[in-house]
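Fold these two proteins, one after the other.
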Amino acid sequence: MKLLIIEDEASLRELMQRSLEKERYVVECAPDFRTAMQKIGAYDYDCVLLDIMLPDGSGLTVLEELKKMRKKENVIIISAKDSIEDKVAGLDLGADDYLAKPFHLAELSARIKSVIRRNQHGGESLVTCGNVVLNPDNFRVLIDGKELELNRKEYDILLYFMNRPERLVNKSALAESVWGDHIDQVDNYDFIYAQIKNLRKKLKAAGATPEIKAVYGFGYKFTLEEA
């Protein structure tokens, strides 16, 4: 899953990034309003960690722009300003949660998992499609109750698909989510083809009922196998 940290305080931003990367998130950063607007305009994220007070603009304006663009990112406001007015304004503009500084990194992690679980998984802790069950808390994948061994990128790709069942998935969007924003600068996506090929083999060998289907000229679709 891919996160965007919008935070101007370099030490805090770097601390958050290192901590969240250890939890296997793909983490991108924006130190100011201008960079934040460029990133949310060009890329998609599973969750945005947003400071209200930025040196060249307001985090609330970022929220307003997300709403105008009809983006579906989960947003957690992270700010030293802990007034009721700021909380209400942020939540009214579409933020999913509000965390006041200073905070413990463990609480930040818990808040991220909570909003993603609530908005992407219908409140369930497990992600299920057909006979495939994925547990984001311990990175385990079960097929008919038996564990499937995947490498990190195979797991990340499977999670991306399972969060978007029966939806067409563009190759570039998949690459950005799993490898990070700057992957859009590569010449080709051969590395994705190799990972998906191996993942499809493992799913088929384990008897998974869903499958990853190639959609010519576009990308892929994670769908239940037709009887």
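Now the second one:
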Amino acid sequence: MSYGCDYKFIPTTSITSGVGISVLPDIYCYTIHIVNICFVKNLETKEFILIDAGMPNSANEIIGVAEKRFGDDSRPIAILLTHGHFDHVGAFLN
């Protein structure tokens, strides 16, 4: 299978890519390319869960945001996937 001679790669991204917002003291939403991920923190224990895992190859950015918000070497206690599309389950380290 091959693409036609007029095929062009079109990158998808949002103008808010790389921008985060504190929705509530315990909820932080962040956009990576076209995907919104959320960090939900337990205010008493400081543990957090990650909601959705972003686009392929976005793991390093997710780790960076988590460490900035929760400290070095922070890890989610769980990852909740809202659905199985590539843009929500794709993060991995190379």
